[in-house]
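Internal ticket #5521
Category: modeling
Description: The requester needs a full-assembly model to guide mutagenesis choices. All entity lines are attached below as received. Residue total reported by intake: 225.
Assigned to: D.W.
Attached entities:
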Amino acid sequence: LAKTTQPISMDSYEGQEVNITCSHNNIATNDYITWYQQFPSQGPRFIIQGYKTKVTNEVASLFIPADRKSSTLSLPRVSLSDTAVYYCLVGGDNAGNMLTFGGGTRLMVKP
Amino acid sequence: NAGVTQTPKFQVLKTGQSMTLQCAQDMNHEYMSWYRQDPGMGLRLIHYSVGAGITDQGEVPNGYNVSRSTTEDFPLRLLSAAPSQTSVYFCASSPVGGKDTEAFFGQGTRLTVV
């Protein structure tokens, strides 16, 4: 499974756009890139998933360059409630949802 | 619409005791899995199942057993609790396995072994 590297922590202020970049140099051809969000004392929650170029949903955007060796999660106009840990996951396995979580990025949104 | 339900939410065990963490999902998902999360760390896969009657080991299976007799339930059994098993345990399910699917997580069971 491809290993991912993310910043350990980031700070932002309410109303700003936040971009969290994830490196995954060993991504395989068939791998997807998925981001999860985890609030304290809760299980992770799916945010967005993509394979290449750009994906956007009501929560976030995911930018993936042509070489797919990195990806950027973009959170528009964050609020205090976006304070959480964000995990970048790559790949998986057809034998089950064998998700490999790294340490994640701890985002702190300040007023 | 319950999703993934874990019980209990909190548990304290003495070293050497055994117990079963329950996980149930009502989404008819084939794939289910158990993770543990230690403080400040990401989740690590303990065991997973691709369907009723089929289970396999993940990254950290030692000290844990699982069974999958129905699609809905995937209990995790601690055979002889040790302080190193103090952690938060999450159960997850997904409709199909693989990379391009969304996993749904329960709220977790916080286990302390003294």
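Resolution: model delivered.
Comment from assignee: Chain B has no helices and eleven strands.
Ticket closed.
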